Amino acid sequence: MYVMKKQAPAFKIVPAFSLALALALALPLVTACGSGGSGSRVLAILPKAELIFPTFDESMIDASQLTIRGTASSANSQVTAVSVNGISATSNDQFATWQATIPLASGPNVIVVSVTDNTGQTNPNAARTTVLNTVPFGSPSDVALDMNNNRILMVDFSLDALIAVDLNSRDRTVLSRNGVGTGPVLENPRGLIIDSTANRAYVVDVTVDALFSIDLNTGNRSILTTGLSFPRALTLDRANNRILLVDSTADALIAVNLSTGAQQIIADDNTPASNGGPNFDTPSGIAYDAANNRCLVSDRGSATGLPGVLSVDLSTGIRSVLSNQSVGTGPALVGPSALMLDTINNRAMVIDVNLDALIAIDLATGNRSILSDDNTGSGPVLRQPEGLAFNPGTNQAFVVDTGVDALYQIDILSGNRAVLAGNNVGTGLSLFQPLGMGLETKKNRALVVDDAFNALFSINLASGERSLISGFGAGSGTPSLQIPNDVVVDEARNRALITDSDQDAIIAVDLDTGLRSIFSDGTDSNSGPLLQTPRGIILDPAQDRALIVDSGSDSVLALNLTSGQRTTLSGAATGTGPTLETPRNLVLDSTASKVFVIDSGLDALISIDLTTGNRSIVSDLNRGTGPNLGDPRDLTLEVSANRVLVVDVSLEAIVAIDLNTGNRAIVADESHGAGVILSNPEALFLVPGTKRVFVTDSNLDALVTVDLVTGDRLLTSK
Fold it and tell me: Please, are residues 235 and 242 in contact by the beta-carbon 8 Å criterion?
């Protein structure tokens, strides 16, 4: 974010002997613009600009154009023109605020704002930022090498898409998804294989429980077969015109005919009828060994002596253990996932999602050895690797990692790792499952609780830099965070207050040291009604209290910020009106002396009077028009527009609710605005007076900035 310097006087006469000193002390926006009398010069302040959207130093988007918004001013006179990358901005308030829509090229786009005033002065570099225009990964789950087109293909289950990464340019494109290509849409794609002969990709989807066929030229999709249970991985048997796939719910190896879609069970608990060998438990990866007429199947289960890798005879369905803790030597497999054959070296390669490693398995002995992990090879470490592809000609493996949402290239000779394509926006430890969010205005940072790390992060709202404050090795004290849901910043006491639904507690975290302590919990009945699954929390500073939605008791509680004493503000026995069912979060309207609660059980926005606790419906299925709420999670109040903004996981959207009528309208989703698609939005925070919100998304593992004017969405920290 561009930060303006302190403004100096518009004009100043400086004696010649002190000019050097004056220039040394002058602000960067002060330049010489003429001469005065003998031995003097006139210094003037250039007009200035500040960006409203985007505001981070770097952001990521996938769009052909972007609307830039900002402010401009001149200490000397009136601003007469603003341009962004040479494109004139428009304004209806003499450029106090302005906007310009600019085209975006693929890759990095440096955005520069120029401002001119009516004295003719121009500041050609009044504000700037960088936007990377590429396809942001959501949750890549599998990968395949498309040798014919020198590219890597990936399926992403957050974006519900098939994505290509060019191996030369690293450019990313969406090959198929809703809106790209025709046919039934992907809903949760997990496994991928390429049929180069037919120029098609085959994808298994665990929500549709189907096998998709996708044309690699058009992105058009068709369903080859349905009725699967939880298809996880697949491989191609071109000689027999079939796909071989494993289903981790049916615990089966299934063949699907490419011409008819007919299914045949090759192996499961009942096939063959007897002496079939160890049963599958949780099959998760598969590789076709044509030379031996068998499939190798990785299995994460433990009921039959696994985790390990099984060999399955394709003629009989008989299974045997190729490698596990009892067969073969070397590091024991814990969470084996994707499999590939390395026939030149007579071995299989398997990804272990728990060991964060690429492991080689000797096909003759079952012996295991590490090819790449934290201690083998150099480069960025794997966090949650899933998919695997292999190019034997270059000894390069390609791995997608859902922990960092990146595509790795691994040299299998050295184990060295490099990120071929990723979502790195901002620095620091990447988020993994961000949920609730609060704002610390003094330090211009967001505080975010992460449920996967059980930790409290800070995110710098200019740079996107992430830092651990408490948890995951940072800070001390008891207890540790278990299931943190939401956070609010109590700046007056230099602490964060976190709701933890596993411990039924409000945990205080010192913002300087990360020290954790129980501030209020569900064990001390002398302090008021017990907490029973607290979720959302906000401050009511005028009353020196916090307000909490408790989904266990379906109530709103007030928490004294000094004593920790709890009282019921509204609930089954306090206040009248509709009973709360699954309250998720709340926002304070201090002017109207009420709070608004979003309830995901009622799919409703509810108003609660702060004095009486009485409840009334503002918007639900029967009140207000527009798209119905499906799974609302959080809300924020936009006072100037007399509306509440809600994030809804089911709609994958930000919804505006008019507080007078209850009418609902989409502000941002896949069809409203451009940029990253909100996949699992959890929390949002409005920056007053800016028409922009910050959103945490637990599928994107990111902080997203959304422009409320256009609906455009930028990935701003990940």
Answer: no
User: How far does the chain reach from its first CA to its final CA, in angstroms?
Assistant: 17
Say how far apart CA 91 and CA 546 lie, in whole Å. Answer: 41
DSSP 9-43: PS-EEEEGGGHHHHHHHS-TTEEEEEE-STTEEEE
Nearest one of 349, 284, 282 to 141, comparing CA atoms = 284
How many angstroms separate the Cα of 35 from the Cα of each of 10, 13, 19, 42, 320? 15, 9, 12, 6, 91
The token duo for 368 is: 């295991």
Range list of β-strands (E), 402-533: 406-411, 417-421, 434-440, 445-450, 455-460, 466-470, 484-490, 495-500, 505-510, 516-521
Q: Which residues contact 125 (CB under 8 A, 6 or more apart)?
A: 112, 113, 114
CB-CB neighbours of 165 under 10 Å:
23
How many whole angstroms separate alpha carbon 212 and alpha carbon 356?
Answer: 29
| Residue for token pair 């089911």 | 650
Nearest Cα neighbor of 143 from 329, 401, 358 is: 401
Residues 6+ apart with CB under 8 A from 106: 133, 134, 171
Q: What are the structure tokens assigned to 389, written together?
A: 């592809």
Residues with Cβ within 8 Å of 322's Cβ and at least 6 positions away in sequence, in order, are 296, 308, 309, 310, 311, 328, 348, 361, 363, 366
| Spatial distance between the Cα atoms of 371 and 389, rounded to a whole number of angstroms | 14
What's the CA gap between 320 and 323, in Å, rounded?
9
Does residue 632 have a cis peptide bond before it, meaning omega lies within 30 degrees of 0?
no
Nearest to 265 by CA among 250, 285, 286, 248: 250
Distance CA 496, CA 62 (A): 34
pLDDT at 342: 96
* Contact between residue 527 and residue 566 where contact means Cβ atoms under 8 Å apart: yes
Max alpha carbon distance in the chain (Å)? 107
Burial of 551-582, coded b for 16+ CB within 10 Å and e otherwise, reads: bebbbbbbbbbeebebebbbbeebbebeebeb
Q: What is the DSSP string of 158-222?
A: TTTEEEEEETTT--EEEEEBTTBSSSSPPSSEEEEEEETTTTEEEEEETTTTEEEEEETTT--EE
Report residue 291: phi and psi, to 5°: -60, -30
- Round to whole Å and give the CA distance between 433 and 718: 11
Q: What does the alpha-carbon distance between residue 11 and residue 29 come to, in Å, rounded to a whole number?
A: 13
> Mean pLDDT per 10-residue run, the chain (718 residues)?
30 29 34 39 77 95 95 92 98 97 95 95 96 91 94 93 94 93 96 96 97 97 97 97 96 97 96 90 96 96 76 97 95 95 96 96 98 96 93 95 91 96 89 94 95 96 96 92 97 97 96 96 83 96 96 96 95 96 96 96 97 98 97 96 97 97 97 92 93 94 96 95
Other CB atoms within 10 Å distance of the CB of residue 74: 22
CA–CA gap between residue 184 and residue 536 (Å, rounded): 37
Which residue from 418, 377, 477, 342 is spatially nearest to 167, judged by alpha carbons?
418
Q: Are 333 and 323 in contact (CB under 8 A)?
A: yes
Local structure of residue 147 (DSSP, 8 states): G
